[in-house]
Amino acid sequence: MAGPSSDNSTFDLGRQRIGTVYAKALLGAADEAGQTEAVLEEFQSLLHDVIAQREDLRHAIAGSILTEEQRIDVLNKAFGEKMNPVLLTFLKVVTQHGRQDCLREIYEAARKIDNDRRGLIEVTATTAAELPEQLAASLTERLKEKLGREVALKTEVDPDLIGGLVLHVGDTVFDGSLANRLKQLRLKALEKTAQEAKASLERFTNSTQS
Asked: What is the first-listed, main subcellular location in coarse terms (predicted)?
């Protein structure tokens, strides 16, 4: 019998595949309208500034409590006159197909596909506090020099890092956080203690055998 982690991995993979399918449809419509970047930026804002901040809208848009008709009514009333028509129409289609719970996966897949075709590599920089704009720009330039490609920098905040930063470049993680450095110091200290204990034990054993 498969364990919970296996089930979760399969579930996540399924959501990612769904995200990719819908992302291609969104990009096709946005490309045709000549509004790809505008649509992606507004989609990101919807996720970060609206759905993540407003619990009522999160449940209404991405939840399963309301009926399809009710969710579409919420979309029309909340965004009808404000949202890019391409994105609004797309959200209605997603709702009609019952995939509103995959909005984040759809956005991430769309952004990745768009970055790939533009020759960009996405890098996520996670810091303990919000990264100032000037430092973010400087980091982007340094990454471009190191990677030899244009960089799309995404920043995230994780107070548990204490200091420093963690970089995700594709599937590779570079952990330069203070929390990680402290962890490495603790591991080195434990290793040194273990070696000293082993040496002491060997000296004791040798002395008793003399």
From this structure: membrane
Does residue 7 sit within a domain? no
- Dihedral sign from CA coordinates of 201, 204, 208, 210: positive
**What is the domain-level CATH number for residue 168?**
3.40.30
Are the C-beta atoms of residues 151 and 121 closer than 8 Å to each other?
yes
Q: Under a CB-based contact definition with an 8 Å cutoff, are residues 116 and 63 in contact?
A: no
Domain range holding 19? 14-115
In this structure, the answer to whether residues 124 and 109 fall within a common structural domain is no
Residue 153: phi and psi, rounded to 5, are: -90, 130
**CATH code for position 54:** 1.10.520.20
| Residue range 111-130, pLDDT digits in tens | 999 998 988 888 888 888 88
Nearest CA to 136 among 155, 160, 164, 158?
155
Asked if 168 and 124 sit in the same domain, the reply is yes
Contacts of 86 (CB under 8 A, 6+ apart): 26, 29, 30, 33, 35, 39
Find tokens 């020099």 and name the residue.
145
Q: How far apart are CA 174 and CA 158, in angstroms?
A: 15
- Residue 70 within any structural domain of the chain: yes
Q: What is the pLDDT of residues 32-70, one digit of tens each?
A: 999 999 999 999 999 988 888 888 777 777 777 788 888
